[in-house]
Design goal:
This protein has 125 residues and is mainly alpha-helical. 66% of the residues lie in helices and 5% in strands.
């Protein structure tokens, strides 16, 4: 029972999504800290991580899910709004922070649900 719970593809995907939101939070914090730094380039979680996560989840491949690691990369789509070369836009970063916070809360609830199943199995209540 315990092994099956922790080897569930949805549980593994939830953990990896949580890892990605923590990394995205760090990236957003870095972007906000450097909003006025000349030539600073915006960073974010590698977009290929999300595609890889979706395909591994759809396939139910727990081993592939376990091997996935989100990484931080330069955002190649970000465009400098001023002449200083900085590609961070404060409003977009604040919106991204709010969205990331909601994602983190959702993923935390997903993992908590899995752990509550384990508690139920142990206690019988």
């Amino acid at each position: 029972m315990i092994t099956a719970l922790f080897n569930d593809a949805n549980y593994a995907a939830s953990k990896k999504m949580l890892d990605a939101t923590v990394l995205r939070h760090d990236a957003i914090a870095s972007n906000l800290a450097n909003v006025e730094t000349p030539n600073y380039k915006r960073v974010d979680v590698d977009p290929s991580f999300v595609a890889d996560l979706r395909s591994a989840t759809a396939a139910g491949d727990v081993q592939k899910l376990s091997s996935l690691q989100p990484t931080e990369v330069l955002d190649r789509n970000a465009i400098a709004a001023n002449r200083d070369g900085n590609t961070v836009q404060l409003e977009k970063e604040m919106l991204a922070m709010n969205q990331n916070t909601l994602s983190h809360q959702f993923e935390t609830q997903m993992i908590t649900g899995h752990l509550l199943q384990l508690r139920l199995a142990i206690t019988g209540h």
